[in-house]
TrEMBL record:
GO biological process, one term: polyphosphate biosynthetic process
Name of this chain's protein: VTC domain-containing protein
Domain VTC stretches: 33-207
Native source organism of the sequence: Flavilitoribacter nigricans (strain ATCC 23147 / DSM 23189 / NBRC 102662 / NCIMB 1420 / SS-2) (Lewinella nigricans)
Gene3D superfamilies named in the record: VTC, catalytic tunnel domain
Length: 210
């Protein structure tokens, strides 16, 4: 399991944030090309995942179908993820989806996976955002920056993204539990404040006005 610390910002431009990351004493450098991330989120009929996330329940699971690249059209190399949270630590269980699927196929995926996932899940939300990837010189810290976020209530026939605030950017710092004592090495040179943030919760609030 690893720590995942989030630093949302609505005050820094993309260029200012990139310079802040690249100028950090931990020596962050880009390690992958930027790419588009797309998700279909799943929940129970009573939106248990949404309410647990909103309430900050310490042990919870988020279910999503994820793929990279264009949001619309045929989906290739998709994976169904169970993202488990235990207090501040997180881990993923990943099921690779073979072949090409459409957005309409997504609703049936949980029922086709092992019994662990057959939990009356149905698709609630789709979202999409652009992600940049960085890593510290010693490889202990990974950092991602997400921007250009959009979402929509799940509809297999429509991908009409509703934009998050355009100035919103979400920085996430990821590192192993063995490096938690080193967090100050990052935060003492970092002006953004640590804050709870969920793209799923914010997307549901935008899409359903909840």
């Amino acid at each position: 399991m690893r720590y995942e610390r989030k630093f949302p910002s609505t005050v820094l431009t993309a260029n200012a944030l990139e310079q802040l990351v690249l100028g950090h004493p931990l020596g962050f450098r880009k390690v992958y090309p930027d790419r588009r991330i797309n998700n279909v989120y799943f929940d129970t009929p009573g939106w248990r995942t949404f309410h647990e996330n909103l309430a900050g329940v310490s042990h919870r699971t988020k279910y999503r179908l994820r793929w990279y690249g264009p949001a619309s059209g045929l989906i290739e190399h998709a994976r169904f993820e169970l993202k488990k949270k235990e207090n501040l630590l997180g881990t993923k269980i990943i099921h690779t989806i073979a072949g090409k699927i459409t957005l309409a196929d997504a609703a049936a995926i949980p029922g086709s996976l092992p019994t662990l996932l057959q939990n009356a899940l149905f698709p609630t939300l789709v979202n999409s955002y652009q992600r940049a990837y960085y890593e510290s010189t010693d490889g202990a810290f990974r950092l991602t920056v997400d921007e250009d976020l959009s979402c929509n209530a799940f509809d297999p026939k429509i991908w009409a993204g509703r934009s998050f605030p355009p100035e919103l950017r979400v920085v996430e710092l990821k590192y192993g539990r063995e490096d938690d004592q080193r967090l100050d090495e990052f935060t003492q040179y970092w002006p953004l404040r640590l804050h709870r943030f969920s793209k799923y919760v914010m997307g549901m609030q935008l899409a359903f006005s909840v």
